[in-house]
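Fold description:
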Amino acid sequence: MAALLAGTALLYLWDLAKTGWANDFYAMAAQAGTWSWKALFFGSLDPGNVVTVDKPPFSLWIMGLSGRLFGFSSWSLLVPNALAGVASVGLLYLAVRRLSGPGAGLLAGAGLALTPVAALMFRYDNPDAFLVLLLVAGAYCVVRALEHASTKWLLLAGVAIGFGFLDKMLQAFLVLPAFVLVYAVAAPTSLGRRIGRLFAAAGAVLVSAGWWIAAVALWPVADRPYISGSTDNSVLELAFGYNGLGRIFGEGRGGRAVTPPAGIELPAGGELPGGGRGFGGGFGGQAGLTRLFGGEFGGEASWLLPAAVIGLVAGLWFTRRAPRTDRTRAALLLWGGWLVVTALVFSYMSGIIHPYYTVALAPGIVATLAISTRELWRGRANFAARAVLAVMLAVTAVWAFVLLARTPDWQPWVRYALLGSGAAAVGGLLFGADRVRRLGPVVAVLGLCGALLGTTSFTLATAATAHAGGTPSSGPSVASGRGFGGGARGFGAGETDSAVIDLLKGTTTKWAAAQSGAMQSAGLALASGRPVLAIGGFSGSDPAPTLQQFRQYVADGDIRYFVAGGRGGFGGGRGTAGEIQAWVEQNFAPLTVGGTTVYDLTKSVD
Protein backbone atom coordinates (compact mmCIF):
# COMPACT_ATOMS: atom_id res chain seq x y z
CA MET A 1 0.00 0.00 0.00
CA ALA A 2 2.84 2.39 0.83
CA ALA A 3 4.38 1.77 -2.58
CA LEU A 4 1.00 2.28 -4.26
CA LEU A 5 0.42 5.61 -2.52
CA ALA A 6 3.97 6.81 -3.09
CA GLY A 7 3.75 5.96 -6.78
CA THR A 8 0.37 7.66 -7.06
CA ALA A 9 1.68 10.79 -5.37
CA LEU A 10 4.67 10.87 -7.72
CA LEU A 11 2.42 10.42 -10.75
CA TYR A 12 -0.03 13.16 -9.76
CA LEU A 13 2.42 15.70 -8.28
CA TRP A 14 5.37 15.45 -10.67
CA ASP A 15 5.87 18.69 -12.63
CA LEU A 16 2.35 19.74 -11.69
CA ALA A 17 2.96 23.45 -12.25
CA LYS A 18 3.30 22.95 -16.02
CA THR A 19 -0.49 22.82 -16.14
CA GLY A 20 -0.53 26.44 -15.03
CA TRP A 21 -3.97 27.54 -13.90
CA ALA A 22 -5.61 24.54 -15.64
CA ASN A 23 -9.25 25.62 -15.97
CA ASP A 24 -9.06 29.43 -15.67
CA PHE A 25 -12.74 29.58 -14.77
CA TYR A 26 -12.37 27.72 -11.46
CA ALA A 27 -8.93 29.23 -10.83
CA MET A 28 -10.49 32.70 -11.04
CA ALA A 29 -13.04 31.77 -8.38
CA ALA A 30 -10.36 30.23 -6.14
CA GLN A 31 -8.33 33.42 -6.51
CA ALA A 32 -11.38 35.49 -5.49
CA GLY A 33 -11.74 33.27 -2.43
CA THR A 34 -8.24 34.22 -1.32
CA TRP A 35 -9.30 37.89 -1.33
CA SER A 36 -12.78 37.63 0.16
CA TRP A 37 -14.27 35.20 2.69
CA LYS A 38 -17.70 35.94 1.28
CA ALA A 39 -16.52 35.05 -2.22
CA LEU A 40 -15.05 31.83 -0.82
CA PHE A 41 -18.34 30.89 0.84
CA PHE A 42 -20.47 31.47 -2.25
CA GLY A 43 -17.95 30.45 -4.89
CA SER A 44 -17.95 33.89 -6.51
CA LEU A 45 -15.94 34.67 -9.61
CA ASP A 46 -14.71 37.97 -8.16
CA PRO A 47 -14.20 39.42 -4.67
CA GLY A 48 -16.97 41.94 -5.36
CA ASN A 49 -19.43 39.02 -5.36
CA VAL A 50 -21.40 39.80 -8.52
CA VAL A 51 -21.86 36.25 -9.84
CA THR A 52 -20.82 32.72 -8.82
CA VAL A 53 -19.48 29.78 -10.75
CA ASP A 54 -22.16 27.41 -12.04
CA LYS A 55 -21.38 24.71 -9.48
CA PRO A 56 -21.53 24.60 -5.68
CA PRO A 57 -18.28 25.66 -4.01
CA PHE A 58 -16.90 22.66 -2.09
CA SER A 59 -13.78 22.25 -4.25
CA LEU A 60 -13.30 26.03 -4.26
CA TRP A 61 -13.33 26.05 -0.47
CA ILE A 62 -10.36 23.67 -0.44
CA MET A 63 -8.40 25.43 -3.18
CA GLY A 64 -9.19 28.89 -1.79
CA LEU A 65 -8.06 27.92 1.71
CA SER A 66 -4.89 26.43 0.26
CA GLY A 67 -4.25 29.74 -1.53
CA ARG A 68 -4.79 31.66 1.69
CA LEU A 69 -2.41 29.42 3.62
CA PHE A 70 0.40 29.08 1.08
CA GLY A 71 -0.11 32.03 -1.23
CA PHE A 72 -2.13 31.79 -4.42
CA SER A 73 -0.19 29.99 -7.14
CA SER A 74 -0.54 27.12 -9.57
CA TRP A 75 0.85 24.77 -6.93
CA SER A 76 -1.46 25.88 -4.14
CA LEU A 77 -4.36 25.58 -6.58
CA LEU A 78 -3.57 22.12 -7.96
CA VAL A 79 -1.83 20.25 -5.13
CA PRO A 80 -5.07 19.77 -3.14
CA ASN A 81 -6.59 18.04 -6.17
CA ALA A 82 -3.56 15.79 -6.56
CA LEU A 83 -3.71 14.89 -2.87
CA ALA A 84 -7.42 14.16 -3.29
CA GLY A 85 -6.37 11.65 -5.93
CA VAL A 86 -3.87 9.98 -3.61
CA ALA A 87 -6.50 9.84 -0.86
CA SER A 88 -9.04 8.37 -3.30
CA VAL A 89 -6.65 5.60 -4.25
CA GLY A 90 -5.90 4.90 -0.59
CA LEU A 91 -9.55 4.82 0.46
CA LEU A 92 -10.46 2.61 -2.49
CA TYR A 93 -7.73 0.17 -1.46
CA LEU A 94 -9.04 0.11 2.12
CA ALA A 95 -12.67 -0.29 1.06
CA VAL A 96 -11.99 -3.18 -1.34
CA ARG A 97 -9.56 -4.86 1.04
CA ARG A 98 -12.09 -5.05 3.88
CA LEU A 99 -14.41 -7.29 1.87
CA SER A 100 -12.09 -8.92 -0.68
CA GLY A 101 -8.57 -8.96 0.72
CA PRO A 102 -5.37 -6.95 0.12
CA GLY A 103 -4.68 -8.36 -3.34
CA ALA A 104 -7.98 -7.08 -4.69
CA GLY A 105 -7.46 -3.82 -2.83
CA LEU A 106 -4.07 -3.24 -4.42
CA LEU A 107 -5.38 -4.10 -7.88
CA ALA A 108 -8.33 -1.70 -7.46
CA GLY A 109 -6.12 1.11 -6.16
CA ALA A 110 -3.59 0.65 -8.94
CA GLY A 111 -6.38 0.49 -11.50
CA LEU A 112 -7.77 3.84 -10.35
CA ALA A 113 -4.34 5.49 -10.23
CA LEU A 114 -3.60 4.24 -13.75
CA THR A 115 -6.88 5.32 -15.37
CA PRO A 116 -6.09 8.13 -17.85
CA VAL A 117 -9.01 10.35 -16.88
CA ALA A 118 -7.99 10.05 -13.23
CA ALA A 119 -4.50 11.32 -14.03
CA LEU A 120 -6.16 14.14 -15.95
CA MET A 121 -8.63 15.25 -13.27
CA PHE A 122 -6.42 14.75 -10.23
CA ARG A 123 -3.94 17.14 -11.84
CA TYR A 124 -6.66 19.69 -12.60
CA ASP A 125 -8.85 22.19 -10.75
CA ASN A 126 -12.31 21.03 -11.90
CA PRO A 127 -14.66 19.82 -9.10
CA ASP A 128 -14.36 16.19 -10.25
CA ALA A 129 -11.29 15.36 -8.14
CA PHE A 130 -13.04 16.06 -4.86
CA LEU A 131 -16.25 14.45 -6.11
CA VAL A 132 -14.41 11.16 -6.58
CA LEU A 133 -12.81 11.44 -3.15
CA LEU A 134 -16.15 12.04 -1.45
CA LEU A 135 -17.86 9.21 -3.34
CA VAL A 136 -15.10 6.73 -2.51
CA ALA A 137 -15.20 7.91 1.11
CA GLY A 138 -18.94 7.26 1.11
CA ALA A 139 -18.40 3.75 -0.27
CA TYR A 140 -15.77 3.05 2.39
CA CYS A 141 -18.26 4.11 5.08
CA VAL A 142 -20.91 1.80 3.59
CA VAL A 143 -18.43 -1.09 3.71
CA ARG A 144 -17.76 -0.36 7.38
CA ALA A 145 -21.51 -0.13 8.00
CA LEU A 146 -22.03 -3.58 6.46
CA GLU A 147 -19.70 -5.29 8.90
CA HIS A 148 -21.91 -4.83 11.98
CA ALA A 149 -24.95 -3.02 10.55
CA SER A 150 -23.45 0.17 11.99
CA THR A 151 -25.66 3.24 12.12
CA LYS A 152 -22.70 5.57 12.67
CA TRP A 153 -20.87 4.50 9.53
CA LEU A 154 -24.03 4.63 7.44
CA LEU A 155 -24.67 8.19 8.61
CA LEU A 156 -21.10 9.11 7.70
CA ALA A 157 -21.72 7.70 4.22
CA GLY A 158 -24.70 10.02 3.96
CA VAL A 159 -22.57 12.98 5.05
CA ALA A 160 -19.98 12.16 2.36
CA ILE A 161 -22.68 12.09 -0.33
CA GLY A 162 -24.18 15.32 0.98
CA PHE A 163 -20.87 17.11 0.65
CA GLY A 164 -20.50 15.48 -2.76
CA PHE A 165 -23.69 17.34 -3.68
CA LEU A 166 -22.00 20.55 -2.54
CA ASP A 167 -19.21 19.72 -4.95
CA LYS A 168 -21.08 18.70 -8.12
CA MET A 169 -24.76 18.51 -7.23
CA LEU A 170 -26.87 15.59 -8.51
CA GLN A 171 -23.94 13.69 -10.00
CA ALA A 172 -23.04 12.74 -6.43
CA PHE A 173 -26.37 10.91 -6.12
CA LEU A 174 -25.60 8.42 -8.91
CA VAL A 175 -23.98 6.06 -6.39
CA LEU A 176 -26.94 6.14 -3.98
CA PRO A 177 -28.87 3.25 -5.63
CA ALA A 178 -25.85 0.98 -5.10
CA PHE A 179 -25.35 2.14 -1.52
CA VAL A 180 -29.01 1.59 -0.66
CA LEU A 181 -29.16 -1.79 -2.43
CA VAL A 182 -26.10 -3.29 -0.76
CA TYR A 183 -27.10 -2.21 2.74
CA ALA A 184 -30.71 -3.30 2.26
CA VAL A 185 -29.58 -6.73 1.03
CA ALA A 186 -26.43 -7.54 2.99
CA ALA A 187 -26.42 -5.70 6.35
CA PRO A 188 -26.49 -8.28 9.18
CA THR A 189 -29.64 -7.08 10.94
CA SER A 190 -33.40 -7.28 10.58
CA LEU A 191 -35.22 -5.79 7.60
CA GLY A 192 -36.95 -3.19 9.74
CA ARG A 193 -33.68 -1.93 11.16
CA ARG A 194 -32.09 -1.85 7.74
CA ILE A 195 -34.91 0.31 6.39
CA GLY A 196 -34.89 2.60 9.42
CA ARG A 197 -31.15 3.19 9.23
CA LEU A 198 -31.36 3.92 5.51
CA PHE A 199 -33.93 6.62 6.25
CA ALA A 200 -31.58 8.03 8.89
CA ALA A 201 -28.77 8.08 6.32
CA ALA A 202 -31.06 9.92 3.90
CA GLY A 203 -31.52 12.52 6.60
CA ALA A 204 -27.73 12.82 6.89
CA VAL A 205 -27.54 13.47 3.14
CA LEU A 206 -30.21 16.19 3.37
CA VAL A 207 -28.58 17.93 6.32
CA SER A 208 -25.02 17.83 4.99
CA ALA A 209 -26.11 19.11 1.58
CA GLY A 210 -28.94 21.32 2.72
CA TRP A 211 -27.22 23.62 5.20
CA TRP A 212 -25.42 25.57 2.47
CA ILE A 213 -28.49 25.65 0.24
CA ALA A 214 -30.54 27.01 3.15
CA ALA A 215 -27.88 29.61 3.93
CA VAL A 216 -27.91 30.85 0.33
CA ALA A 217 -31.71 30.89 0.23
CA LEU A 218 -32.00 32.84 3.49
CA TRP A 219 -29.23 35.32 2.63
CA PRO A 220 -30.65 38.62 1.35
CA VAL A 221 -30.54 38.49 -2.44
CA ALA A 222 -29.25 42.05 -2.68
CA ASP A 223 -26.28 41.13 -0.50
CA ARG A 224 -25.10 37.99 -2.29
CA PRO A 225 -23.90 37.08 -5.79
CA TYR A 226 -26.17 35.83 -8.55
CA ILE A 227 -26.24 32.01 -8.76
CA SER A 228 -24.75 31.41 -12.19
CA GLY A 229 -26.50 28.95 -14.46
CA SER A 230 -29.84 29.29 -12.69
CA THR A 231 -32.85 31.00 -14.21
CA ASP A 232 -34.23 32.42 -10.95
CA ASN A 233 -31.09 33.06 -8.88
CA SER A 234 -31.57 29.98 -6.69
CA VAL A 235 -29.37 26.99 -5.91
CA LEU A 236 -32.23 24.51 -6.11
CA GLU A 237 -33.16 25.59 -9.63
CA LEU A 238 -29.51 25.24 -10.62
CA ALA A 239 -29.36 21.78 -9.04
CA PHE A 240 -32.50 20.41 -10.64
CA GLY A 241 -32.38 22.48 -13.83
CA TYR A 242 -29.11 23.20 -15.61
CA ASN A 243 -26.99 20.89 -13.41
CA GLY A 244 -29.65 18.23 -12.92
CA LEU A 245 -32.59 17.10 -15.00
CA GLY A 246 -31.56 19.40 -17.84
CA ARG A 247 -28.35 17.40 -18.18
CA ILE A 248 -30.15 14.07 -18.18
CA PHE A 249 -33.15 14.85 -20.35
CA GLY A 250 -31.63 17.60 -22.49
CA GLU A 251 -34.05 20.34 -21.57
CA GLY A 252 -33.59 23.94 -20.49
CA ARG A 253 -30.22 25.64 -20.25
CA GLY A 254 -28.41 22.36 -19.78
CA GLY A 255 -30.21 20.94 -22.74
CA ARG A 256 -30.23 19.74 -26.24
CA ALA A 257 -28.05 20.79 -29.12
CA VAL A 258 -29.16 23.74 -31.19
CA THR A 259 -27.63 25.48 -34.19
CA PRO A 260 -25.02 28.08 -33.11
CA PRO A 261 -25.45 31.69 -34.15
CA ALA A 262 -23.61 32.84 -37.27
CA GLY A 263 -19.97 33.53 -36.61
CA ILE A 264 -19.81 31.53 -33.36
CA GLU A 265 -17.26 28.74 -33.55
CA LEU A 266 -17.20 26.06 -30.89
CA PRO A 267 -15.29 22.80 -30.57
CA ALA A 268 -16.76 19.48 -31.66
CA GLY A 269 -19.77 18.90 -29.50
CA GLY A 270 -19.76 22.56 -28.41
CA GLU A 271 -21.18 22.93 -24.92
CA LEU A 272 -21.56 26.37 -23.45
CA PRO A 273 -20.47 25.65 -19.88
CA GLY A 274 -21.68 27.83 -17.08
CA GLY A 275 -25.26 28.33 -18.12
CA GLY A 276 -25.21 28.42 -21.90
CA ARG A 277 -26.79 25.88 -24.19
CA GLY A 278 -25.08 23.06 -25.99
CA PHE A 279 -24.26 22.81 -29.69
CA GLY A 280 -23.74 19.59 -31.58
CA GLY A 281 -24.26 16.96 -28.93
CA GLY A 282 -22.56 18.31 -25.83
CA PHE A 283 -19.11 16.80 -26.52
CA GLY A 284 -20.41 13.32 -25.85
CA GLY A 285 -21.48 12.01 -29.21
CA GLN A 286 -24.77 10.22 -29.70
CA ALA A 287 -26.53 8.84 -26.63
CA GLY A 288 -26.55 5.05 -26.34
CA LEU A 289 -24.63 2.10 -24.97
CA THR A 290 -21.72 2.72 -27.33
CA ARG A 291 -21.11 6.29 -26.15
CA LEU A 292 -18.59 5.31 -23.47
CA PHE A 293 -16.51 3.49 -26.08
CA GLY A 294 -16.65 6.19 -28.75
CA GLY A 295 -14.03 8.66 -29.86
CA GLU A 296 -14.83 11.27 -27.22
CA PHE A 297 -15.02 8.84 -24.29
CA GLY A 298 -13.10 5.72 -25.18
CA GLY A 299 -9.62 6.72 -24.07
CA GLU A 300 -10.77 8.26 -20.79
CA ALA A 301 -11.96 5.31 -18.70
CA SER A 302 -13.23 2.46 -20.89
CA TRP A 303 -10.01 0.40 -20.94
CA LEU A 304 -11.19 -2.04 -18.27
CA LEU A 305 -14.95 -1.52 -18.63
CA PRO A 306 -15.80 -4.57 -20.79
CA ALA A 307 -13.89 -6.92 -18.46
CA ALA A 308 -15.52 -5.36 -15.39
CA VAL A 309 -19.01 -5.99 -16.80
CA ILE A 310 -18.13 -9.61 -17.60
CA GLY A 311 -16.62 -10.05 -14.15
CA LEU A 312 -19.71 -8.57 -12.49
CA VAL A 313 -22.09 -10.93 -14.29
CA ALA A 314 -19.88 -13.94 -13.57
CA GLY A 315 -19.40 -12.99 -9.93
CA LEU A 316 -23.11 -12.56 -9.30
CA TRP A 317 -23.80 -15.89 -11.00
CA PHE A 318 -21.21 -17.80 -8.97
CA THR A 319 -22.52 -16.27 -5.70
CA ARG A 320 -26.21 -16.68 -6.50
CA ARG A 321 -26.70 -19.31 -3.77
CA ALA A 322 -24.55 -17.58 -1.16
CA PRO A 323 -26.09 -16.36 2.13
CA ARG A 324 -27.73 -12.93 2.16
CA THR A 325 -24.79 -11.37 3.98
CA ASP A 326 -22.09 -12.92 1.77
CA ARG A 327 -19.17 -10.48 1.64
CA THR A 328 -18.15 -11.13 -1.96
CA ARG A 329 -21.64 -10.63 -3.32
CA ALA A 330 -22.03 -7.52 -1.17
CA ALA A 331 -18.85 -6.10 -2.66
CA LEU A 332 -20.06 -6.85 -6.18
CA LEU A 333 -23.43 -5.23 -5.49
CA LEU A 334 -21.75 -2.11 -4.12
CA TRP A 335 -19.17 -1.48 -6.81
CA GLY A 336 -21.06 -3.16 -9.62
CA GLY A 337 -24.14 -1.11 -8.80
CA TRP A 338 -21.98 2.03 -8.88
CA LEU A 339 -20.65 0.97 -12.30
CA VAL A 340 -24.00 0.05 -13.87
CA VAL A 341 -26.04 3.06 -12.76
CA THR A 342 -23.34 5.62 -13.55
CA ALA A 343 -22.53 4.02 -16.91
CA LEU A 344 -26.18 3.93 -17.96
CA VAL A 345 -26.80 7.54 -16.98
CA PHE A 346 -23.68 8.73 -18.79
CA SER A 347 -24.60 6.65 -21.82
CA TYR A 348 -28.13 7.96 -22.21
CA MET A 349 -27.83 11.57 -21.03
CA SER A 350 -29.39 13.84 -23.64
CA GLY A 351 -27.98 17.08 -22.30
CA ILE A 352 -24.51 18.46 -21.70
CA ILE A 353 -21.89 15.84 -20.88
CA HIS A 354 -18.10 15.93 -20.96
CA PRO A 355 -15.90 12.85 -21.45
CA TYR A 356 -13.95 13.70 -18.29
CA TYR A 357 -17.10 13.06 -16.24
CA THR A 358 -16.14 9.39 -16.49
CA VAL A 359 -13.60 9.86 -13.70
CA ALA A 360 -16.61 9.27 -11.41
CA LEU A 361 -17.15 5.92 -13.14
CA ALA A 362 -13.55 4.77 -12.72
CA PRO A 363 -13.76 3.56 -9.06
CA GLY A 364 -16.76 1.36 -9.90
CA ILE A 365 -14.96 -0.14 -12.89
CA VAL A 366 -11.66 -0.95 -11.21
CA ALA A 367 -13.16 -2.17 -7.93
CA THR A 368 -15.60 -4.49 -9.71
CA LEU A 369 -12.81 -5.81 -11.91
CA ALA A 370 -10.43 -6.32 -8.98
CA ILE A 371 -12.99 -8.19 -6.86
CA SER A 372 -14.19 -10.46 -9.66
CA THR A 373 -10.62 -11.14 -10.84
CA ARG A 374 -9.53 -12.11 -7.35
CA GLU A 375 -12.44 -14.50 -6.88
CA LEU A 376 -12.04 -16.08 -10.32
CA TRP A 377 -8.29 -16.51 -9.76
CA ARG A 378 -8.95 -18.20 -6.42
CA GLY A 379 -11.47 -20.52 -8.05
CA ARG A 380 -9.47 -21.29 -11.16
CA ALA A 381 -9.34 -24.98 -10.30
CA ASN A 382 -12.79 -24.85 -11.87
CA PHE A 383 -12.40 -24.61 -15.64
CA ALA A 384 -15.43 -22.31 -15.89
CA ALA A 385 -13.75 -19.75 -13.63
CA ARG A 386 -10.53 -20.03 -15.66
CA ALA A 387 -12.43 -19.60 -18.89
CA VAL A 388 -14.24 -16.49 -17.70
CA LEU A 389 -10.95 -15.01 -16.51
CA ALA A 390 -9.39 -15.78 -19.90
CA VAL A 391 -12.29 -14.09 -21.71
CA MET A 392 -11.98 -11.01 -19.49
CA LEU A 393 -8.28 -10.78 -20.23
CA ALA A 394 -8.70 -11.33 -23.97
CA VAL A 395 -11.40 -8.68 -24.24
CA THR A 396 -9.29 -6.20 -22.28
CA ALA A 397 -6.20 -6.73 -24.42
CA VAL A 398 -8.13 -6.49 -27.69
CA TRP A 399 -10.00 -3.37 -26.59
CA ALA A 400 -6.76 -1.71 -25.44
CA PHE A 401 -5.28 -2.53 -28.85
CA VAL A 402 -8.25 -0.84 -30.54
CA LEU A 403 -8.00 2.26 -28.34
CA LEU A 404 -4.27 2.62 -28.94
CA ALA A 405 -4.79 2.15 -32.66
CA ARG A 406 -6.80 5.39 -32.64
CA THR A 407 -3.45 7.16 -32.19
CA PRO A 408 -1.40 4.96 -34.55
CA ASP A 409 1.72 7.13 -34.62
CA TRP A 410 2.12 7.19 -30.85
CA GLN A 411 4.28 4.35 -29.43
CA PRO A 412 2.89 1.57 -31.68
CA TRP A 413 4.97 -1.04 -29.86
CA VAL A 414 2.76 -0.74 -26.79
CA ARG A 415 -0.33 -2.21 -28.41
CA TYR A 416 1.58 -5.14 -29.86
CA ALA A 417 3.35 -5.83 -26.57
CA LEU A 418 0.12 -5.93 -24.59
CA LEU A 419 -1.55 -8.08 -27.22
CA GLY A 420 1.29 -10.58 -27.08
CA SER A 421 1.46 -10.78 -23.30
CA GLY A 422 -2.32 -10.98 -23.09
CA ALA A 423 -2.45 -13.82 -25.61
CA ALA A 424 0.22 -15.76 -23.70
CA ALA A 425 -1.69 -15.35 -20.44
CA VAL A 426 -4.98 -16.38 -22.05
CA GLY A 427 -3.33 -19.53 -23.42
CA GLY A 428 -1.82 -20.28 -20.02
CA LEU A 429 -5.22 -19.99 -18.34
CA LEU A 430 -7.07 -22.11 -20.87
CA PHE A 431 -4.46 -24.89 -20.80
CA GLY A 432 -3.98 -24.84 -17.04
CA ALA A 433 -0.41 -23.53 -16.98
CA ASP A 434 -1.39 -21.27 -14.06
CA ARG A 435 -1.86 -24.39 -11.91
CA VAL A 436 1.64 -25.69 -12.59
CA ARG A 437 4.14 -24.88 -9.85
CA ARG A 438 6.14 -21.70 -10.58
CA LEU A 439 4.14 -20.97 -13.71
CA GLY A 440 1.21 -19.42 -11.87
CA PRO A 441 3.05 -16.16 -11.08
CA VAL A 442 4.30 -15.98 -14.67
CA VAL A 443 0.77 -16.27 -16.02
CA ALA A 444 -0.39 -13.66 -13.51
CA VAL A 445 2.33 -11.19 -14.52
CA LEU A 446 1.65 -11.70 -18.21
CA GLY A 447 -2.05 -11.19 -17.55
CA LEU A 448 -1.45 -7.95 -15.66
CA CYS A 449 0.74 -6.68 -18.50
CA GLY A 450 -1.91 -7.53 -21.06
CA ALA A 451 -4.61 -5.85 -18.99
CA LEU A 452 -2.83 -2.75 -17.69
CA LEU A 453 -0.08 -1.87 -20.18
CA GLY A 454 -2.43 0.09 -22.43
CA THR A 455 -4.14 2.15 -19.73
CA THR A 456 -0.81 2.66 -17.95
CA SER A 457 0.91 4.02 -21.05
CA PHE A 458 -1.96 6.38 -21.76
CA THR A 459 -2.01 7.54 -18.13
CA LEU A 460 1.71 8.32 -18.17
CA ALA A 461 1.26 10.24 -21.42
CA THR A 462 -1.60 12.18 -19.86
CA ALA A 463 0.47 13.12 -16.81
CA ALA A 464 3.34 14.20 -19.06
CA THR A 465 1.11 16.58 -21.03
CA ALA A 466 0.11 20.09 -20.01
CA HIS A 467 -3.63 20.73 -20.23
CA ALA A 468 -5.68 23.90 -20.12
CA GLY A 469 -9.24 25.11 -20.59
CA GLY A 470 -12.69 23.81 -19.80
CA THR A 471 -12.65 20.66 -21.95
CA PRO A 472 -9.41 18.77 -21.23
CA SER A 473 -8.96 15.26 -22.56
CA SER A 474 -6.53 12.53 -21.66
CA GLY A 475 -3.88 11.01 -23.87
CA PRO A 476 -0.58 11.99 -25.48
CA SER A 477 -0.06 15.48 -26.83
CA VAL A 478 0.43 14.15 -30.35
CA ALA A 479 -3.13 12.88 -30.44
CA SER A 480 -5.76 15.02 -32.05
CA GLY A 481 -9.29 14.95 -33.33
CA ARG A 482 -12.30 13.38 -31.67
CA GLY A 483 -11.65 11.88 -28.31
CA PHE A 484 -8.00 12.84 -27.89
CA GLY A 485 -5.99 16.02 -28.08
CA GLY A 486 -4.51 16.19 -24.65
CA GLY A 487 -1.87 18.73 -25.48
CA ALA A 488 -4.17 21.33 -26.94
CA ARG A 489 -5.60 24.25 -25.03
CA GLY A 490 -9.20 23.29 -24.41
CA PHE A 491 -12.34 25.34 -24.90
CA GLY A 492 -12.32 28.22 -22.43
CA ALA A 493 -8.56 28.68 -22.21
CA GLY A 494 -8.41 32.40 -22.85
CA GLU A 495 -5.28 34.16 -24.11
CA THR A 496 -4.17 37.43 -22.52
CA ASP A 497 -2.45 40.48 -23.97
CA SER A 498 0.66 41.37 -21.95
CA ALA A 499 0.12 45.09 -22.56
CA VAL A 500 -3.38 44.87 -21.09
CA ILE A 501 -2.05 42.93 -18.11
CA ASP A 502 0.50 45.66 -17.40
CA LEU A 503 -2.30 48.23 -17.63
CA LEU A 504 -4.45 46.37 -15.11
CA LYS A 505 -1.59 45.92 -12.67
CA GLY A 506 -1.42 49.69 -12.24
CA THR A 507 -5.06 50.03 -11.11
CA THR A 508 -6.31 50.56 -7.56
CA THR A 509 -10.08 50.40 -8.12
CA LYS A 510 -12.39 47.70 -6.73
CA TRP A 511 -12.29 45.98 -10.11
CA ALA A 512 -9.35 46.60 -12.41
CA ALA A 513 -11.55 45.85 -15.41
CA ALA A 514 -14.73 44.26 -16.63
CA GLN A 515 -15.20 41.94 -19.56
CA SER A 516 -18.07 39.86 -20.93
CA GLY A 517 -17.84 36.23 -19.88
CA ALA A 518 -15.34 34.53 -17.61
CA MET A 519 -13.48 32.61 -20.32
CA GLN A 520 -11.40 35.68 -21.17
CA SER A 521 -11.76 37.73 -18.00
CA ALA A 522 -10.39 34.86 -15.91
CA GLY A 523 -7.10 35.09 -17.78
CA LEU A 524 -6.96 38.82 -17.06
CA ALA A 525 -7.52 38.34 -13.33
CA LEU A 526 -5.05 35.48 -13.01
CA ALA A 527 -2.27 37.13 -15.02
CA SER A 528 -2.61 40.58 -13.44
CA GLY A 529 -3.38 39.51 -9.88
CA ARG A 530 -6.16 42.13 -9.83
CA PRO A 531 -9.95 41.61 -9.53
CA VAL A 532 -11.84 41.53 -12.83
CA LEU A 533 -15.62 41.58 -13.17
CA ALA A 534 -16.83 38.72 -15.42
CA ILE A 535 -20.04 40.15 -16.84
CA GLY A 536 -22.69 37.45 -17.14
CA GLY A 537 -20.68 34.69 -15.49
CA PHE A 538 -18.91 32.01 -17.49
CA SER A 539 -20.54 32.48 -20.87
CA GLY A 540 -21.85 36.00 -20.41
CA SER A 541 -25.44 34.71 -20.37
CA ASP A 542 -26.30 35.35 -16.71
CA PRO A 543 -28.15 38.61 -15.91
CA ALA A 544 -25.46 39.79 -13.52
CA PRO A 545 -24.69 42.58 -13.21
CA THR A 546 -27.65 44.38 -14.72
CA LEU A 547 -27.01 47.43 -16.87
CA GLN A 548 -28.23 49.65 -14.04
CA GLN A 549 -25.85 48.02 -11.56
CA PHE A 550 -22.95 48.30 -13.97
CA ARG A 551 -23.64 51.98 -14.58
CA GLN A 552 -23.66 52.54 -10.83
CA TYR A 553 -20.31 50.75 -10.46
CA VAL A 554 -18.86 53.06 -13.12
CA ALA A 555 -20.38 56.15 -11.49
CA ASP A 556 -18.87 55.13 -8.14
CA GLY A 557 -15.43 54.70 -9.73
CA ASP A 558 -15.32 50.97 -8.92
CA ILE A 559 -14.25 49.80 -12.42
CA ARG A 560 -11.35 51.35 -14.32
CA TYR A 561 -11.46 49.62 -17.71
CA PHE A 562 -13.77 47.67 -19.96
CA VAL A 563 -11.87 45.16 -22.09
CA ALA A 564 -13.44 44.24 -25.41
CA GLY A 565 -13.28 40.79 -26.90
CA GLY A 566 -15.30 38.92 -24.28
CA ARG A 567 -18.09 36.46 -24.86
CA GLY A 568 -21.29 38.49 -24.61
CA GLY A 569 -23.79 35.70 -24.15
CA PHE A 570 -22.43 33.77 -27.20
CA GLY A 571 -25.07 35.48 -29.22
CA GLY A 572 -23.36 38.38 -30.89
CA GLY A 573 -23.85 40.81 -28.00
CA ARG A 574 -27.31 39.73 -26.89
CA GLY A 575 -28.72 39.86 -23.34
CA THR A 576 -27.46 41.84 -20.36
CA ALA A 577 -23.82 41.49 -21.38
CA GLY A 578 -24.67 42.84 -24.81
CA GLU A 579 -26.54 45.78 -23.30
CA ILE A 580 -23.56 46.67 -21.13
CA GLN A 581 -21.14 46.39 -24.02
CA ALA A 582 -23.36 48.63 -26.20
CA TRP A 583 -23.62 51.23 -23.42
CA VAL A 584 -19.84 51.27 -22.97
CA GLU A 585 -19.25 51.67 -26.70
CA GLN A 586 -21.68 54.58 -26.85
CA ASN A 587 -20.30 56.47 -23.87
CA PHE A 588 -16.54 55.84 -23.80
CA ALA A 589 -13.85 56.22 -26.41
CA PRO A 590 -11.90 53.10 -27.40
CA LEU A 591 -8.15 52.78 -26.86
CA THR A 592 -5.84 50.25 -28.45
CA VAL A 593 -3.59 48.60 -25.89
CA GLY A 594 -1.28 46.07 -27.47
CA GLY A 595 -3.67 44.30 -29.81
CA THR A 596 -6.77 44.76 -27.65
CA THR A 597 -9.50 47.39 -27.57
CA VAL A 598 -9.93 48.87 -24.08
CA TYR A 599 -12.30 51.55 -22.76
CA ASP A 600 -11.21 53.81 -19.89
CA LEU A 601 -14.38 54.07 -17.79
CA THR A 602 -13.14 57.20 -16.02
CA LYS A 603 -13.15 59.18 -19.29
CA SER A 604 -16.60 59.58 -20.80
CA VAL A 605 -16.95 60.90 -24.36
CA ASP A 606 -19.33 63.52 -22.92
